[in-house]
Write a structure and sequence with these properties.
Distance between the termini of chain B: 18 Å
Largest sheet of chain A: 6 strands, antiparallel, barrel
Number of helices of chain A: 3
Distance between the termini of chain A: 81 Å
Shape of chain B: globular
Strand content of chain B: under 5%
Order of helices and strands of chain B: HHHH
Structural class of chain A: alpha+beta
Helix content of chain B: over 70%
Helix content of chain A: 25-40%
Shape of chain A: globular
Low-confidence stretches of chain B: none
Mean pLDDT of chain B: 85
Number of helices of chain B: 4
Number of strands of chain B: 0
Mean pLDDT of chain A: 84
Largest interface: A-B, 34 and 33 residues
Radius of gyration of chain A: 25 Å
Oligomer: heterodimer
Number of strands of chain A: 12
Strand content of chain A: 25-35%
Order of helices and strands of chain A: HHHEEEEEEEEEEEE
Chain lengths: ~260, ~80
């Protein structure tokens, strides 16, 4: 009896040819796209602006056709929340002026100069924890500048500056390490980005930490970088794992300040 | 078909969330023989959306993944007999 076996796909000349094609495509493509990186971002920028404009318009349209009773209810809730926020704001303003006064006494001024920028791209359009903002070299943005939410809270740093756009790497980017300290005990920590706007860290089990504890960046500004959202501790562990939620929602951030 | 598909994915790369365009690139690899365009699409994602590239070899994870998957799909496609 004669048995026919399928030929196994060993690395024949064809496979080597494909491998060569793939490597060439990778090398050529990478060098070409890297060379035109700034142009690509500039060309995509009007598309992103248009897309943001359209999505905002659609959101507003849906808000217009909302049910009247629902709107009245929402309005009442928002008014109540506003009263509460106004009280908090007053307290914070007092604290801020005290902080500025202290900084002045010590010969340090607060970060009053900043560049306001609109966010063109944010996750989930990008698979990385990256923002592309519409302010660049012409607006005075420099590499390494810190990026915060307008209402406060550090988001990340500018890593690339183009003519009219900049790329911001978020502190929460996967594997990004950020030095910070735990407000409760002034303990120095290293936050490790997990992507998706969150961080993780490990602390000895003896250090007391609770959900809602704040993580601040070192420096006189002490900007908020995250809030503890989960503490995981097994009875046999010598350390506890802490999950920290970054400030704001990176999936819907529209404006940032760069300083 | 192949060219139109690539143009569609390219447009989606600029406008849609990653969980739409990345699976589409993968589907292209399965659908078309030796879909080398996936390497360029992956590289485009890395270059436009990626951070600073410190390591030239691992600085393009999606481009590299595109190349590896395209090569892996060649014997797989033959075994699956897509073309017959």
């Amino acid at each position: 009896m004669k048995t026919n076996f399928h030929r196994r796909y060993s690395s024949g000349p064809n496979q080597r040819k494909w491998l060569l094609y793939a490597i060439t495509a990778l090398v050529l493509g990478a060098s070409m796209l890297l060379f035109f990186r700034s142009t690509l971002v500039s060309l995509s920028s009007p598309v992103w602006k248009g897309q943001n404009f359209v999505s905002l318009g659609i959101k507003n349209l849906f808000a217009l056709i909302k049910d009247k009773d629902e709107l009245v209810e929402e309005n009442t809730v928002l008014r109540e929340r506003l009263v509460s926020y106004e009280a908090t704001l007053l307290a914070l303003q007092t604290l801020e002026s005290t902080q500025l006064e202290m900084l002045r006494i010590f010969g340090r001024s607060g970060n009053e100069d900043f560049v306001a920028a609109g966010v063109l791209v944010h996750p989930p359009e990008t698979p990385y924890d990256i923002l592309i903002v519409d302010a660049g070299e012409e607006d005075g943005v420099i590499e390494g500048s810190m990026v915060s939410l307008p209402e406060g809270g550090a988001l990340g740093r500018v890593t690339e500056v183009y003519e009219n756009q900049s790329k911001v790497e978020l502190y929460s980017g996967s594997g990004v390490e950020t030095n910070a300290y735990l407000e409760r005990h002034n303990v120095s920590i290293k936050l490790i980005g997990r992507g998706g706007g969150s961080f993780e860290l490990e602390l000895p089990r003896d250090i007391e930490i609770k959900e809602g504890d704040k993580m601040l960046l070192p420096g006189v500004e002490s900007e908020l970088v995250g809030v503890v959202s989960k503490v995981m501790l097994e009875p046999t562990d010598s350390t506890k794992k802490i999950i920290v939620r970054g400030v704001g929602n990176i999936n819907s951030v529209r404006f940032v300040s760069i300083h | 078909m192949r060219v139109w598909y690539t143009i569609l994915v390219l447009a989606m790369t600029i406008t849609m969330p990653f969980w739409i365009y990345l699976p589409l690139i993968f589907i292209g690899i399965i659908m078309f023989p030796f879909y080398i365009e996936s390497v360029f699409l992956g590289l485009l994602v890395d270059v436009i959306y990626g951070g600073a590239i410190d390591n030239i070899l691992f600085g393009f994870p999606f481009g590299l993944a595109g190349a590896v998957l395209t090569l892996s799909a060649i014997p797989l496609r033959k075994r699956l007999r897509f073309n017959t």
